Amino acid sequence: MKLRDAPAACPSLWRCLPCPPAELRLDLVLSSGQSFRWWESSPGAWTGVLGSRVWTLRQDGDRLWYTVYGEEDEHEEERDGCPAKAAKLDTTETDRILRDYFQLDVGLSALYRAWGAADPLFRKVAKDFPGVRVLRQDPVECLFSFICTSNNHISRITAMIERLCQAFGRRLCCLDSRPFHAFPSLSALTGADAEARLRALGFGYRAKFVSGSARAIAEGLGPEGLCQLRAAPYAEARRVLCALPGVGAKVADCVCLLALDKAEAVPVDTHVWHIARQRYGVALGGKSLTPRAYQEIGDFFRGLWGPRAGWAQAVSTPLPGTLAPHSSHAYPIISPLQVLFCADLRKGQKPASS
Fold this sequence. Notes:
The protein is α+β, with helices and mostly antiparallel strands. It has 15 helices and 9 strands. The strands form 3 sheets. It has a 5-stranded antiparallel β-sheet with strand order 1-5-4-3-2, covered by helices on one side. Helix 10 crosses helix 11. The longest helix is centred in the middle third of the chain and has 15 residues, at 154-168. It starts with 14 loop residues before the first strand and ends in an 8-residue tail after the last helix. Mean pLDDT is 85; it is low at 323-354.
């Protein structure tokens, strides 16, 4: 099946939602290290897996365009690159999925104004990064993706998640000879040989954490219980997550923020700690990021940015340990020079000299 990279390709199979760039910038959000299932399939077009379906997204002015590929479409005869008889799409449902995933009911422009009024540093950064919002992901996928992020970088994490899905997930379709798979179910990751297979896929020490957490969830609260943590208080959700193998405070906060509706969660690593110390003058901790300093830094940003502090952090700093594609470090987006530095890293180039 051919990949459709713009509404001009099979226009009847595309649909759009009203969405100005100030409310969403696909290029900033889908490459930020929140999710690892999207790739820029052509300039301005992003293709990935969401809700066990394959989508291509594109922005044009104030509209967010999307097309969804059906498994059954793959076997249909094509005419001019389009399925001769495409499966009927429930557009009410696909609209809902997309609005929920990008949390489009949250007015981002108003939040930017409030954060900018409270924080001059945020105001300086935000004008160059409009439309950065937090995704609302499936809790199982988000949890196991972020277990893989420790001491890692975006390009390697993305490759690991791709191998994980190919080995354990259900095949969805093939676009231009590229196969797409659903994220594995918990049952697929709890097999007796799961850890050995993951090690063979290059997961290293993370293999035991992935298989161990899968077993712990399957034998305990289950995937439904994990999803129900959305209704639990932030502290309770965080406590439950931190009891899982391979899940510390930082991973737990990433999952709380990106999957469990805890907008006040502020993931902290040593680089966010340095930002708090150097840019905001917050003198916390000694020579290392202690659990107490971690909590106090999160409390500082919650006090500064309010109940959606985790959203503000997604604009002013990348998620811990994920921005630079070829480094295990996160680089704060604070000045134009550092933005250029990050841009060069994204391209796999040496940083531009100042």
